[in-house]
Amino acid sequence: MKDKQIEKLIKSEQKRQKKVVNLIASENYVSSDVLAALGSELTNKYSEGYPGARYYGGNEIMDIIEETARERALSLFGLNPSEWGVNVQALSGSPANLAVYTALIPLGEKIMGMSLDHGGHLTHGHKVSASGKFWVQIAYGVSKETERLDFDEL
């Protein structure tokens, strides 16, 4: 890498990740194959839309890759492709959660989610998130004594 400062920072992050147990649900340690794919020429390609219906040209290979991933996901979970669809496009949990909320919960209704300070996610109705602006959060947490969920309280 030509940029030695960034190279050093990447190596520092690699060391940090090897020394800690990461308990953040939205972060994952990917395989070396995933790291290699993400660092490949695939990163250069913008593929907005879905296979066969992209907004830009030059996506023939990306379409095959995405269709392969979709087929593998359906197979992995034993799902019938005539009954199920799979979106394998990269999304963080936030837009995915928002999609579910908007599809299932009328605006202004209540959502129940773990509070942020007890391990929940911003999209569980926190006031800085769209979920906290569009819906009313009914928050829950863990017992201070046991550090476990109190199902009677829930």
From TrEMBL:
Pfam families named among the record's database cross-references: SHMT
GO cellular component: cytoplasm
Keywords, sorted A to Z: Pyridoxal phosphate
GO biological process: glycine biosynthetic process from serine; tetrahydrofolate metabolic process
UniProt cross-references to InterPro entries, sorted A to Z: PyrdxlP-dep_Trfase, PyrdxlP-dep_Trfase_major, Ser_HO-MeTrfase-like, SHMT-like_dom
Residue ranges annotated for the Serine hydroxymethyltransferase-like domain, each copy included: 2-154
Cofactor: pyridoxal 5'-phosphate
Highest rank taxon of the organism: Bacteria
UniProt GO MF annotations: glycine hydroxymethyltransferase activity; pyridoxal phosphate binding
Gene3D superfamilies for this protein: Type I PLP-dependent aspartate aminotransferase-like (Major domain)
Name the record gives this protein: Serine hydroxymethyltransferase-like domain-containing protein
